[in-house]
Amino acid sequence: MSRFFVGITGASGHRFAQTLVRALVALKHEVHVCLTPAGSLVMEHELGLPCGENGDGLAALLEQWIGPGASELVICYDPRDVGGEPASGTAKIDASILVPCSMGTLARVAAGFSSNLVERAADVALKEGRTLMIMPRETPLSRLHLQNMLSLAEMGAVILPCMPGWYHKPESLQDLLDHAVGKVLDRLDVEHSLGARWAGLHSEPEEAGIRRAAEGEEAP
């Protein structure tokens, strides 16, 4: 079992965070979650989950957000708790993922300015040489946004935008979410069966082929 920190900010795209945490919990990994105040507003708007002004109500909604048994593996933090476990390198968090990552959070992390636990956990990952994954969800991107991403990439962070592909022939929104989160799990070196893998230009992803066969269609 590995230990991961997931910071959720005020950017749009909270289904990506939900899919990632669900996948990690299903694989029996421990997940430390922190929701910023702006993230709390967006979570209520996009997922219908009222988590309170500071995101401190998320713990009471874990099973609604992730599913049965989530409280056994998910630990929630108030973003103001800068003394929480993920704030120290001695906590041995294997990797930190900010998803979705707002441009404000991106800028503060790039500048080394930690105003809450999400930003401090990202700073800890950088200083300890551990995996920091940034999943921005913004468009279009300004030159400043790109400069901040480049700055973090040069520090060793992984920039993995919430940009799912289409070659796996998705048939639902969940297929797109699974594809993007599968890429996250690959970079975290976490074994999974989320989404379909590329098998070559003249082949189709395994799961798509199985689905087509079941539906009586011929592969292209």
Strand element count: 6
**Largest sheet, strands/sense/barrel:** 6 strands, parallel
- CATH domain class name: Alpha Beta
Helix content: 25-40%
Which segments are poorly predicted (pLDDT under 50) over 5 or more consecutive residues?
209-220
The SSE string, one letter per element, is EHEHHEEHHEHEHH
Taking strands numbered 1, 2, ... along the chain, how are they ordered across the largest sheet? 3-2-1-4-5-6
Euclidean distance between termini CA atoms: 40 Å
Radius of gyration: 18 Å
What does this protein structure show overall?
There is one protein chain. By secondary structure, the chain is α/β, with parallel strands linked by helices. It has one domain (3-214): Flavin prenyltransferase-like (Rossmann fold, 3-Layer(aba) Sandwich). It has eight helices and six strands. The chain has a six-stranded parallel β-sheet, sandwiched between helices. α1 (14-26) links the parallel β1 (3-8) and β2 (30-35). The longest helix is centred in the C-terminal third of the chain and has 15 residues, at 173-187. Mean pLDDT is 91; it is low at 209-220.
Short note summarizing the structure:
The protein is an alpha/beta fold and 220 residues long. It contains 8 helices and 6 strands.
